């Protein structure tokens, strides 16, 4: 699967030595996780303090936009109770293979390696009724047993809020992780997003920046920008909280069509203003 930790040149890596009363199994599992993570240059947690702000849409489109820029990209959906990535990428019928020596094979879609709990459900309507420890175990398995290979970026789509899933990811992925926080412009969303920023700071998770989604609406007929939900709130919050502002994405009816048909906007309508905004944000994250 990768290099043996004992032969690794990184003498400072914690996976080289046993920790406290760690059993052989615990040490082996930790090394397996580290061997996967060592081959991924950067992990980006896509977070939001509030549901319904377009976090998964942002994660999917950013992943594809970064792949179009020549990056080796993976997309991990850790929204255990509401996985939407398979639908957005037209992967409802994908079932992962397990290959000896390589682990679980992710889907490969439009240049991006993809893994989701949704691939393991018999039906898309099945409910996952798990407590925190089971969710932590599943996320660990996705990180340590999926054959991600060499990646420049692993985009991790987290569920809304500051609960089990984002906490597990931060604890597992280590120091090379950063957060991308998605919001809409109105005050009620910004209040919850500020909690996500506090979450990141409490866990010493660097914040790559804030994305303002649904920032105005481009009329498909006259091309006028109409501020249905306001605009500028995300940028203002970024300034107040002293974190980078990555850009704003206008609302677009084509976004709904793209998500429902399984072809994200950056591929379906690459010249749409929202698609171009995703590309700009992707470039801001790369540079």
Keyphrases for this structure?
about 290 residues; alpha/beta; Rossmann fold; 8-stranded mixed beta sheet; two-stranded antiparallel ribbon; 10 helices; about 40% helix
Any overview of this molecule?
The chain is of the alpha/beta class. The chain has one domain (43-286): 3-Layer(aba) Sandwich (Rossmann fold), CATH 3.40.50.300. It has helices spanning 24-37, 55-68, 85-88, 132-145, 164-173, 187-202, 233-241, 253-261, 265-268, 273-286; strands spanning 40-47, 73-77, 98-99, 103-104, 107-109, 112-116, 151-157, 177-183, 207-212, 217-218, 225-226, 245-248. The longest helix is centred in the C-terminal third of the chain and has 16 residues, at 187-202. The two termini are 30 Å apart. The relative contact order is 0.16. The model has no long low-confidence stretch (mean pLDDT 90).
Gist of the model:
Helix content is 38%, strand content 18%. By secondary structure, it is an alpha/beta fold. The chain is globular, with a radius of gyration of 19 Å.
Task: Please tally the helical runs, counting DSSP H or I stretches of 4 or more residues.
Answer: 10
Number of strands: 12
Query: What is the CATH H-level superfamily?
Result: P-loop containing nucleotide triphosphate hydrolases
Number of domains: 1
Average pLDDT number: 90
Proportion of beta-strand residues: 15-25%
Summarize the biggest pleated sheet: 8 strands, mixed
Overall body shape: globular
Give the C-level CATH assignment: Alpha Beta
Q: Which strand order does the major sheet show? A: 5-6-2-7-1-8-9-12
Structural class, judged by helices and strands?
alpha/beta
Low confidence ranges: none
CATH third-tier fold name: Rossmann fold
């Amino acid at each position: 699967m990768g290099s043996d930790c004992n032969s690794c040149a990184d003498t400072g890596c914690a996976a080289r030595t046993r920790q406290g009363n760690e059993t052989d199994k615990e040490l082996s599992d930790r090394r397996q996780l580290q061997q996967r993570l060592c081959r991924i240059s950067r992990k980006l947690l896509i977070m939001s303090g509030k549901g319904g702000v377009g976090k998964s849409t942002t994660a999917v489109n950013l992943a594809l936009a970064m792949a179009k820029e020549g990056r080796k990209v993976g997309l991990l959906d850790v929204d255990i109770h509401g996985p939407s990535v398979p639908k957005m990428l037209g992967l409802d019928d994908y079932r992962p293979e397990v290959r000896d020596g390589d682990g679980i094979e992710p889907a490969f879609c439009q240049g991006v390696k993809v893994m989701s709990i949704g691939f393991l459900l018999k039906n898309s309507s099945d409910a996952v009724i798990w407590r925190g420890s089971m969710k932590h175990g599943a996320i660990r398995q996705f990180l340590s047993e999926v054959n991600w290979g060499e990646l420049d970026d692993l985009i991790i789509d987290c569920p809304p809020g500051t609960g089990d899933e984002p906490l597990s990811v931060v604890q597992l992925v280590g120091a090379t992780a950063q957060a991308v926080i998605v919001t809409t412009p109105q005050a009620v969303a910004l209040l919850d997003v500020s909690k996500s920023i506090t979450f990141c700071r409490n866990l010493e998770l660097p914040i790559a920046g804030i994305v303002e989604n649904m920032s105005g609406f481009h009329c498909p007929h006259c091309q006028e920008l109409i501020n249905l939900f306001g605009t500028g709130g995300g940028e203002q919050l970024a300034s107040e909280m002293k974190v980078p502002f990555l850009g704003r994405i206008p609302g677009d009816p084509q976004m709904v069509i793209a998500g429902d048909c399984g072809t994200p906007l950056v591929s379906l309508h690459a010249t749409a203003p929202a698609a171009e905004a995703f590309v700009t944000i992707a470039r801001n994250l790369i540079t």
